[in-house]
Specification:
InterPro entries: WRKY_dom, WRKY_dom_sf, WRKY_plant
Distance between the termini: 23 Å
Number of strands: 5
Radius of gyration: 26 Å
Shape: elongated
Number of helices: 7
Main location: nucleus
Order of helices and strands: HHHHEEEEEHHH
Structural class: alpha+beta
Strand content: 5-15%
Organism: Escallonia herrerae
GO molecular function: DNA-binding transcription factor activity; sequence-specific DNA binding
Helix content: 40-55%
Keywords: DNA-binding, Nucleus, Transcription, Transcription regulation
Length: 314
DNA sequence: CGTTTTTGACCCGCGC
DNA sequence: GCGCGGGTCAAAAACG
């Protein structure tokens, strides 16, 4: 096999170093069917091609490795800065929330909302009708006993369905448009067992329509219908629960904290959580490495640069 | 044909 | 007592 590389229309700028731009080099092409998992020959050929190029130029390999190492360092520093900015923004948000809640307490509400204190604590993405309840009401005391819990799920905003796949079987018995949220609220009952008292309310967040807010009420009185682990989706974290609510997902950036706080509030066992940066890096790495097109294009860019060095030296 | 979803009507608690 | 708004019911429609 020879180590020739053909031209390809692919053109991805992967160079984060502004002084070292890829488009300074001639566009090259890669033969193959990227992303087609049924035909692995294309990608394998690219890897072989790159390996052939690199093996011919050990010095070049070292140079390239050094450059990538420095870029990696830069990226790490950038990530640290982003993390610091995030922390600063979060503390500012906390201050804002605190001042907002103080002003809400000082101004009387027109109508006493239903719900319990739980929502007040965890309800950043909850509805306003579920927050700021008064103490002392017998109904609310009953609700507090009823094991109410809220989860937040990332959902496709274009998908209008209010379906939360949590592994249990639900029967929808109502849907309502509430006053303070344009998106409808769906009411579900657990249909796995006829006598199961668990109810679920699902509604999109007012602030972010891509967030589904699901409120669970009650406790399943039947054996778990073996909810599939991870059925909440990729970005959700399975949390061992002590009650009927098996999942306490942590989604997105600020939702991580909110989700976990809600877990703690519902007496769910304490959970070790990786740092935000770690989560971000892992998710990015996972997404990129699973994308065969990306890896193929990455290989294409690297090989084109190597070839260019080769030509320049000659 | 059984199950699930839709949707308008009704019920009930709360604030005024 | 009345009106508002959330929650539930139940008949009809849709679905598999």
């Amino acid at each position: 096999m020879d180590c020739s590389i053909e031209d390809t229309p692919l053109n991805i700028d992967l160079n984060v170093n502004p002084s070292h731009r890829i488009d300074e080099y001639p566009k090259t092409e890669l033969r193959g069917d990227f992303g087609d998992e049924g035909k692995p020959t294309g990608r394998q050929e690219e890897i072989l091609t790159i390996w052939c190029s690199l093996s011919k130029q050990p010095d070049l390999l070292i140079t390239e490795l050094n450059r990538m190492s420095s870029e990696n360092k830069q990226l790490t520093e950038l990530l640290a800065i982003v993390g610091e900015n995030y922390s600063a923004m979060r503390s500012q948000l906390a201050k804002l929330k605190q001042s907002n809640s103080e002003s809400e307490l000082s101004s009387p509400r027109k109508r006493k909302p239903r719900g319990d204190d739980y929502f007040h604590v965890t309800g950043r993405y909850g509805n306003t009708d579920n927050c700021c309840s008064d103490e002392g009401s017998s109904k609310r005391a009953k609700e507090a006993k009823a094991n109410v819990s809220t989860i937040y799920l990332r959902a496709d905003p274009s998908d209008k369905s209010l379906v939360v796949k949590d592994g249990y079987q639900w029967r929808k018995y109502g849907q309502k448009v509430t006053r303070d949220n344009p998106s409808p609220r769906a009411y579900y009952k657990c249909s796995y067992a006829p006598t199961c008292p668990v109810k679920k309310k699902v509604q999109r967040s007012v602030e972010d329509p891509s967030i589904l807010v699901a409120s669970y009420e009650g406790e399943h009185n039947h054996n778990n219908s073996s909810p599939a682990q991870g059925s909440f989706g990729l970005s959700q974290v399975l949390v061992p629960g002590s009650n009927s609510l098996p999942y306490c997902p942590t989604i997105g950036l600020d939702l991580v904290e909110t989700g976990l706080r809600s877990c703690a509030k519902t007496s769910v066992a304490e959970v070790k959580v990786p740092s935000l940066q770690q989560i971000l890096v892992e998710q990015m790495a996972s997404t990129l490495t699973r994308n065969s097109s990306f890896t193929a294009e990455l290989a294409a860019v690297i090989s084109s640069k190597i070839l260019d060095y080769d030509l320049a030296e000659k």
